[in-house]
């Protein structure tokens, strides 16, 4: 399964740590769904229409682990039309527009039809550093 931090976030963190360039963490984070996966530079095909909107997500980091995981379930509104096949997720710093921070292909793609609700259970959206 491919996925990583975006070039935007990698650059911001490297500058923050190694050149003392200020970086302000976003006050809110949002999950985006994709029918074509993005890459580290962005792109991909994010869903639009049919009742889709990015959903807010919060993460927790426990102890000295290199793992951040969603601390509550993320539930999208019911699809008002077909969303197609979801193949990837992204984490953004804004509910629309904004900067892609991290992304990953799904282990198993998921087709969303009219009336379906996509739900990511608590503790199932993990971001790691290695």
Please provide a brief summary of the model.
With 130 residues, this protein is mostly beta strands. It has one helix at 7-19; strands at residues 3-5, 29-36, 45-46, 55-57, 59-61, 67-70, 74-75, 84-92, 100-112, 119-120, 126-128.
Helix content: 10-25%
Outline the biggest β-sheet: 6 strands, antiparallel
Distance between the termini: 15 Å
Order of helices and strands: EHEEEEEEEEEE
Strand content: 35-45%
Low-confidence stretches: none
Task: Tell me the total number of β-strands.
Answer: 11
- Total helical elements: 1
- Report Rg: 15 Å
Tell me the number of structural domains. 1
Q: Overall 3D geometry?
A: globular
Average pLDDT rating? 94
- Provide the structure class: mainly beta
Describe the secondary-structure layout.
Blueprint: E1 3-5, H1 7-19, E2 29-36, E3 45-46, E4 55-57, E5 59-61, E6 67-70, E7 74-75, E8 84-92, E9 100-112, E10 119-120, E11 126-128
Antiparallel strand pairs: 1-9, 2-3, 2-4, 2-8, 5-6, 6-11, 7-10, 8-9
Features:
10% helix, mainly beta, 6-stranded antiparallel beta sheet, globular, 130 residues, single chain, 11 strands
């Amino acid at each position: 399964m491919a996925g990583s931090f975006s070039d935007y976030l990698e650059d911001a963190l490297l500058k923050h740590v190694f050149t003392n360039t200020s970086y302000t963490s976003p006050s809110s984070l949002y999950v985006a769904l994709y029918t074509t996966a993005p890459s580290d530079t962005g792109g991909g095909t994010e869903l639009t229409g049919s009742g889709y909107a990015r959903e807010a997500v919060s993460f927790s980091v426990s102890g000295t682990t290199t793992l951040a995981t969603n601390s509550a379930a993320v539930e999208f509104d019911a699809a008002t039309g077909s969303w197609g096949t979801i193949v990837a997720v992204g984490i953004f710093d804004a509910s629309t527009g904004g900067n892609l921070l991290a992304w990953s292909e799904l282990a198993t793609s998921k087709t969303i039809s009219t009336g379906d609700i996509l739900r990511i259970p608590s503790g199932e959206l993990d971001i790691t550093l290695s």
